Amino acid sequence: MRESPLRRALRVFEAFTVDHLELNLTEIARRSGLPISTTHRLVGELVRWGALERGPGGYRIGLRLWETAALAPRALGLRDVAWPYLEDLYHAIGENVLLAVRDGMEIVFVERLSGPGAVPVLTTLGRRRSLHATSAGLALLAHAPTQVQETVLSSPLRRYTPRTVVDPVRLRHTLAEIRRAGYAVCDGHMTLDALSVAAPIVDSTGLVSSALSVVVSAGTDHRRLIPAVVTAARGVSRALGAPGARRHSRSGVAG
């Protein structure tokens, strides 16, 4: 079956990644697997529309595509509702504050607040991460449908650091503990210099649709962060109209 023009254009977009933000025409053709003539034509059309723009070293994603992506209902409404709580949490702890949603077997970060004194993190807006290696991912995985959990548990799990939980039995136990406790903790699971705490956010249908997390330096006493993170997540849940959002989460340690 012949590939549609739309699919070829999508292959151009797929050539760009967090590690390849700017590409020349030859690189786009090579990474997309498209002929150079086709790439030249598609890139020209995308530049004229604003989906791509010229940079000093080639082409990069254009602002018009970002403007369009920002209209995605799942992220747009959530970010608007969550922003005051993220801001309050950031001012309270002065560290990285992140908002994430689950997309299939990965999480996508849709908002981030950070300051000059915060620990450096690998996460940028729109970046995808594995569900099992971050506190936000674990919080979402713990409340994901059974089919999603079983798919993750039966798949090879990448070990980012020696502390990443990759044993399915241990991960299953961790997810149960997160559901019991109401929050997740990852100490050095993604990078050894960072610790994160996350809590699930419940939407108006009663489902966990997103998670709020903070990332601090390794060695930080995570117990002092838990009340603030859980309270902020509960506030977002209430603002989203979650049923029973006023219930108190049970205390415990997970992750």
From TrEMBL:
Originating species: Saccharomonospora marina XMU15
Keywords assigned by UniProt, alphabetized: DNA-binding, Transcription, Transcription regulation
GO biological process terms held by the UniProt record: negative regulation of DNA-templated transcription
Transcription among keywords: yes
Listed InterPro entries: GAF-like_dom_sf (IPR029016), HTH_MetabolicPath_Reg (IPR050707), Tscrpt_reg_IclR_C (IPR014757), Tscrpt_reg_IclR_N (IPR005471), WH-like_DNA-bd_sf (IPR036388), WH_DNA-bd_sf (IPR036390)
Domain HTH iclR-type per the UniProt entry, residue ranges: 3-63
GO MF entries: DNA binding; DNA-binding transcription factor activity
UniProt xrefs under Gene3D superfamilies: 3.30.450.40, Winged helix-like DNA-binding domain superfamily/Winged helix DNA-binding domain
Protein name, per record: Transcriptional regulator
Entry keyword Thylakoid: no
Pfam families: HTH_IclR, IclR_C
Domain IclR-ED: 64-242
